[in-house]
Amino acid sequence: xxxxxxxxxxxxxxxxxxxxxxxxxxxxxxxxxxxxxxxxxxxxxxxxxxxxxxxxxxxxxxxxxxxxxxxxxxxxxxxxxxxxxxxxxxxxxxxxxxxxxxxxxxxxxxxxxxxxxxxxxxxxxxxxxxxxxxxxxxxxxxxxxxxxxxxxxxxxxxxxxxxxxxxxxxxxxxxxxxxxxxxxxxxxxxxxxxxxxxxxxxxxxxxxxxxxxxxxxxxxxxxxxxxxxxxxxxxxxxxxxxxxxxxxxxxxxxxxxxxxxxxxxxxxxxxxxxxxxxxxxxxxxxxxxxxxxxxxxxxxxxxxxxxxxxxxxxxxxxxxxxxxxxxxxxxxxxxxxxxxxxxxxxxxxxxxxxxxxxxxxxxxxxxxxxxxxxxxxxxxxxxxxxxxxxxxxxxxxxxxxxxxxxxxxxxxxxxxxxxxxxxxxxxxxxxxxxxxxxxxxxxxxxxxxxxxxxxxxxxxxxxxxxxxxxxxxxxxxxxxxxxx
Length: 484
Fold this sequence. Notes:
This protein is of the alpha+beta class. It has three domains: 2-228, YmcC-like fold (Beta Barrel); 258-381, Sandwich (Immunoglobulin-like), CATH 2.60.40.1930; 400-477, no CATH class. The protein is built from eight helices and 24 strands. A hairpin with a 5-residue loop joins strand 19 (305-312) and strand 20 (318-321). The protein is globular.
């Protein structure tokens, strides 16, 4: 259930402002004269009414490093809470295999959530934190004109101006709209939100996290998939929930977080880690909040961190790699903060969890070779005994002639099949241990480019034989390279 935490967080920004009726404000004179002469006025929640249905495709930086999900919501009608009239909104989120239904109570002056289904409690909070800043500039009590040179300043990112920039025609899955572009500058990049006069939420948005240095990662991104008016019957009737955490009914749900704040073993990073429960059980989950911070300042988050969460033995040999379990070379923290859950597969006793840092680099570029650094956290595991896992296999030293062959492949002088033949030799000689998967045939798909990059680093002596072998094992395990 905690998985959805960011789900509403994004819907929250969804509400940052826009208008979707395709025939609204399409007058040519608006575009000729430009946004400074546009008489349009907008605010968060403008035109929101009973029977409105919205569907958005979106992502948020604090939810699985901006992994996209779909959020659908429908305004059922008014809800009287004490002396205040709110909107009752039904919500369904589609997040990978999960289907998460619930409801929220939204204010009618500013559509910020103040109540709703218990299952959505932490997500309402995240949603509110994302939308509250925009609705503080533009709500029903203080609507904003497109012709204004500025809608105000964002104090927490250095007083940057929120500016109506220009009129733009954009196309999203729901259709083509003539919108006003609202933007602000952060970290050397322009964050953009496209709004339409008369429509309560943005049509589209692409914004960046404010960082003091480096390339700012995406903060949130979304676009309108579908919009309908006058939907009189609940469109979510009959939808079967598939909730994150289903099957964990006997696991601890209310717990205190353990706070660990220490430098890494090489003193290159400060890790601010909170996890819970303190004594997780085998078969249940650990919830992690991980902050990667500069060794020079405990308040400065690092951006674009490439890392992994490992479970190791006493000699630091890994039993598990969370990145490998997700089919990745490494995990990625674009803003330097991670909120995630991991399944406990370890037996009762003390499990050695390691947050392993490879370096800082854009997501699709292998981090420059540097001294590997990590933080080990020993966690007491409770529950029932399970079969003992075996460490991820290590291998003998790779013969030197293999580097020559690999170098030809990296430089484009030999084919994928020739490279595979060299790998077959290593397997036959016991240098590479094949993971327990089906084999046979030739390569099943094009070898990912990052494998060539990793191989190139190995050929040049920047990475170890073990790292090269691990990359090849990943190819075989995921069926990309098949050995006869």
